Amino acid sequence: MVVSVLNFQFQIYNFKSLSSLGLLMERRVLSLAWPVLVQQALIISVGFFDQWLAGHFRPADPTQHISYQSAQTTANYLAWFIASCGTLVSVGATAMVARFVGAKDLDTANRVTHQSLLLAMVFGAVFSVIGLVFLHDLIYALRLQATTAETAIQFLTPILALVMFMVIELAGVACLVGAGDTRIGLYVLGGVAMLNLILAPLCLYFVGFMGIAIGTATSHTVGAIAVLIVLSRGRSGLKLRLPLFRPNVDLMRRLLRISIPASVDSISMGVCQLWFLSLVNQLGETAGAAHGIAIRIESLGYLSGMAFGTAAAALVGQSLGAGRPADASRFGWLAFRMGCLTMTAMGVFFFTFAPWLFAQFCPNPEQAPIIEAGVPVLRLVAFAMPPLSCMIVFTHALRGAGDSRMPMLFTWIGFLVIRLPLAYLLTRSTVDLGVIGTVSGWNLGLIGAWWAMFVDLFVRGAFFLARFASGKWQKIKV
Questions:
Q1: Which of 38, 60, 265, 411 is the most exposed place for a label (fewest CB within 10 A)?
Q2: Number of neighbours of residue 273 by Cβ within 10 angstroms
Q3: Closest CA relative to residue 220, chosen from 177, 166, 256, 276
Q4: How far is 158 from 128, CA to CA, in rounded Å?
Q5: Per residue in 260-308, pLDDT tens?
Q6: Alpha-carbon span 89 to 77, nearest angstrom
Q7: What digits encode the pLDDT tens for the residues 196-241?
Q8: How far is CA 368 from CA 42, 110, 288, 289, in A?
């Protein structure tokens, strides 16, 4: 059944001979995707620069170098988890603004923007307080050793203190994306990246290792202020006006009806990622450091999928808002094709240059074990780029249509049924099943954990492909 539906969808959009309409649609996808591609590259460049600084930072005791990089891995995971909580606002913002812009109702689209920013301020403040209060307990629950745990706590404190501004930045850019404007995010995050190039090493010099996080958090705070200034002056039909910040219960409810399933998806994914990280941390500091660097490099592939996924979200939402579901489907398939080709090319790059890439973050002799552990896992994930492109592009396309519940179900299946059980089996010599007893594991170490991730990505990629091909998302109401 799925195969026949897939064949039908691909016949609608003939990849071999693009008509003039197809060329026009291709240009629309590219016009939205390329600014996001550069924007995501700038976001990742901030993380890469921070990772590079950590790799070249020389602690007083050189034996602690791997410990510092392992601490940064956990800190990066938690920072990503915090950012993923921003989907509680951003997904609904993009979907609803896109629908109303497609329906030529700019007044309601503007009101949605104000309610999105208001929710971002509230949720951002809540995330900050909860994070700071429970940070110590969470870090130690992730099985870090004492020195590594304290370093991770210091690194995360400034990020948590300013997390509200990161959520506001995310919400403002999401509203503009829904309006079809992906360039402001590019300009703002370009400024964030440039500012971080100055602040992170400066703070590192005066404050120490924690200074990297201070510079990054401060840069994103400036970015949030820049987004608010742009919206206050008016952009793409959206303009901030103080009276419109009065809470509108109906619009908030509609926003959250879309965003809550997506945020549950992102937050549950974050929780499962932290659970997965705790398994990696138990393999030792070298495994933790190698895992973090490999994930950072792998994000280069993720960014291209994210760019075409963002374009798909905006164009699918706008097409459905204009009453053109066939165009929404064509845009989704076209964005997937472009994203898949780009990510596959990145996979070839990872496999070919894995040793060189790791060497950029591990220039000292004592870091050689990190390279030895990390190169095989990066080469393994290179083969998972095509299914990962299915996950990324179609997740955004479905969310743009307001279909945020099925991605959440796929996330739970991928992590709880596949990745985590496999990770236990492949990384341990024995697995304790409680009252059932124990079973023998494969004891493969870090590569075993990444094999579990590899299988998960392939299964979830197939699920997302089938869901979009079914066309059921076209009937979702927002």
A1: 60
A2: 19
A3: 166
A4: 10
A5: 877 777 788 888 988 999 999 899 889 999 999 999 899 888 888 888 9
A6: 20
A7: 889 988 998 888 878 888 998 999 999 999 999 999 999 888 999 9
A8: 28, 53, 14, 11
